[in-house]
Design goal:
Blueprint lengths: L1 H10 L7 H8 L2 E4 L14 H10 L7 H19 L5 E7 L11 E7 L11 E7 L6 H20 L7 E6 L3 E8 L2 E4 L4 E2 L6 H16 L2
Helix pairs in contact: 2-5, 3-4, 4-6
């Protein structure tokens, strides 16, 4: 039985995790609880982003790939412009940390406090996964496993962080996660996206970037 269990772990990857396997295999407790502030400082206007989103609103966005390219990516680029030289964005990055635990595979987006744009060499502090229209528990479990892997990565680099943050988004709805002390907390209030006013999402992202970088 132990042999079969080990074999199952080796065959897994981030996108195979379920809420139950986070607990059973990684010892991560998953809970829904409010952890984000109720208000955030204003992000500020970004005309370049608004122009991109106006075009995106006229494009077919029925696939995860389309929403990732035309909505999520421009939002993260706007976040990057506001925080020049503070972090790098890694898109479609293969983040292999521990294959025996299923902590391997590709992440949609990783934000890392690194100026090297070719490889994640400094701690990862935020992970974004673009999923289908409804954010389900499987998407949350995948992001939770990726955050657990990022925690191992940061510890290996000798730069542990008190908390790591992640997000699962359909582009239209953004759910925010925090991993701290092996507890994965999902804020129940998902943040809605609006093509003409994307700044509510960006205000949350900016708050998390500031908090993450201050805790390094």
């Amino acid at each position: 039985m132990r042999k079969d269990f080990a074999t199952n772990k080796k065959s897994m990857a981030y996108n195979k995790f379920k809420i139950q396997t986070l607990k059973e295999q990684l010892g991560v407790l998953v809970q829904r609880n409010y952890w984000l502030p109720k208000t955030f400082p204003a992000f500020g206007d970004d005309e370049r982003l608004l122009s991109s989103l106006q075009e995106a609103a006229r494009i077919y966005l029925g696939s995860e790939k389309a929403r990732s390219e035309f909505v999520v990516t421009p939002i993260l680029q706007a976040l990057y412009r506001k925080n020049q030289n503070k972090f790098s964005i890694f898109s479609g990055y293969e983040f292999n940390i521990d294959k025996n635990k299923g902590l391997n595979g590709f992440c949609d987006f990783i934000l890392a406090s690194s100026q090297d744009t070719f490889i994640v060499e400094a701690p990862a502090f935020f992970i974004v996964e673009t999923k289908k229209i409804d954010i389900d528990d499987n998407a949350i479990a995948q992001c939770g496993a990726e955050l657990y892997a990022a925690q191992i990565f940061n510890n290996q680099k000798g730069k542990p962080q008190k908390a790591l943050y992640g997000c699962v988004t359909s582009a239209y709805s953004w759910g925010f996660l925090k991993l701290e002390n092996n507890i994965l907390t999902i804020d129940p209030d998902y943040v809605s996206f609006n093509f003409s006013n994307p700044y509510q999402v960006l205000a949350v992202l900016q708050w998390i970037v500031g908090k993450s970088l201050s805790e390094e």
